[in-house]
Amino acid sequence: MLIPVLLSGGVGSRLWPVSRAARPKQFLPLSAEGSMLQETQRRLAGLSCGTAIVVCNADHRFLVAEQLQHESEQAPTIILEPAGRNTAPAIALAAIHSREVDPEALLLVLPADHHVTDTDAFQRAVEQASERAMAGMLMTFGVVPSHAETGYGYVRCGAEWEEGLFELAEFVEKPDQETAQQYVDSGTYFWNSGMFLLRADRYLAELAAHQPEMLAACEQAMSGAQRDLDFIRPNAEAFLASPANSIDYAVMEHTEAGGVAALSCGWSDVGAWPALWEMGSGDEEGNVTQGDVFLHDASNNYVRSDSRLVTGVGIADLVIVETADAVMVGAKDRVQDVKKVVEALLLVDRPEATQHQTVWRPWGSYESLVVGEQFQVKRLTVQPGQELSLQLHHHRAEHWVVVSGSAEVIRGEEHFTLGPDESTYIPIGVKHRLANRGTDPLEVIEVQSGSYLGEDDIVRFEDVYGREESPK
């Protein structure tokens, strides 16, 4: 059985300010209709697959569930990493789980934040590599390079078994420009895609041989796993004992059973903003724009606007990205260093480093519109059939005004419905809940007032999502 394993633990800091820890690039529509996670799931249509396994962190569990609920007839199995330990332990969790379904399950390991333009070519490469993988080889997909790229690692191929399939010789780090050109000219080096096809039992056997501590920690974590709604929570204490390492270093560099399948499918890991410039449709001057953008006497720029008009005059080779609460401007050949900006923002505890102005919750989202001394105005969007927790606040009161949709409200012992232009007041210390029982999104303006407006001023009594740690 072919089981897709979607790795969704990345942060994508090089695509800040659009990608942030609270909603990183795999959950964003950067390169196609729908998010990159959804694009990855759709790439599997046509392959004969079992239920997909998604490995992600707990903060993103509802995002994963929501985005994939309509992408497949089978709801995915979602394994929640207690902490990031890189790809080797993440794949181990999936392999241990899939072993219960099929001892010889074939795992197709895919990062959830990559872009592929030729799905047919991708699927042909998977099918071609399957026979070798079923025979016990650990296959990685090497992307046939279109140019000398310094932003990717490479795999060097050994003997060619058959057309498009090679022995794995070694993984090599990101090269300088001259070395990258030598790699491409040689014809024996491919870009390291980070995608793999391997049998679950063979992968675990390789871990036993080369990373026994990692395997022991992951086995113990999964044996102590708990079910949380539709999620699997491995035992945190056991998993945290695992060394952190990538599958490249932990297994593929040591195994004698490594293979490479050549892949030419219009692949990109969308690792930084210039990748979107390369993928986009530019104007006559080479500018790629998205949103409300006007350029004059400009060339070879990538300019993205999410919330307002952005203009540029006499500029070249720049990346300009605007969001509701931040603007990033960088030289195209230096913009990979934006992750250093994120690191600096984290050091001074700037919320823009991790949170968007719009914050997503399992019931919908909220956006802070105005923040003042002892008051705050938010816009809440509650999706059809969803509800907030039954809760109260010790330090703030709330006034709700319905803009559109129908709101079902619990306020103390009262239970009533509000329509557009209707409102209610929630005093401090009163239990309350907001729900949308309709078929259209519910939009509410919430005005908070009080001595303390932090999201941790919430006492929950009931929550259909089983949350304890997340606000609202």
Strand-helix topology:
Blueprint: E1 2-7, H1 36-42, E2 53-57, H2 61-68, E3 77-81, H3 87-101, E4 106-111, E5 115-116, H4 119-134, E6 138-143, E7 154-162, E8 165-172, H5 177-186, E9 189-199, H6 200-210, H7 212-223, E10 226-228, E11 231-233, H8 236-239, H9 247-252, E12 258-263, E13 267-268, H10 273-279, E14 288-290, E15 293-296, E16 302-305, E17 310-313, E18 318-322, E19 327-331, H11 338-347, E20 358-361, E21 364-372, E22 375-382, E23 390-392, E24 396-404, E25 407-411, E26 414-418, E27 423-426, E28 432-435, E29 442-450, E30 459-462
Parallel strand pairs: 1-2, 1-4, 2-3, 3-11, 6-12, 14-16, 15-17, 16-18
Antiparallel strand pairs: 4-9, 5-13, 6-9, 7-8, 7-9, 8-12, 10-11, 18-19, 20-21, 21-22, 22-29, 23-30, 24-27, 24-29, 25-26, 25-28
General description of the model:
- With 472 residues, the chain is an alpha/beta fold.
- The chain folds into 3 domains: 2-268, Spore Coat Polysaccharide Biosynthesis Protein SpsA, Chain A, CATH 3.90.550; 273-342, no CATH class; 358-462, Jelly Rolls.
- Helices cover 22% and strands 34% of the residues.
- The strands form 7 sheets. It has a 6-stranded antiparallel beta sheet with strand order 20-21-22-29-24-27, with no helix packed on it. Strands 6-9-7-8-12 form a 5-stranded mixed beta barrel.
- A hairpin with a 2-residue loop joins strand 20 (358-361) and strand 21.
- Helix 6 (200-210) packs across helix 7.
- The longest helix has 16 residues, at 119-134.
- The protein starts with a strand and ends in a 10-residue tail after the last strand.
- The mean pLDDT is 95.
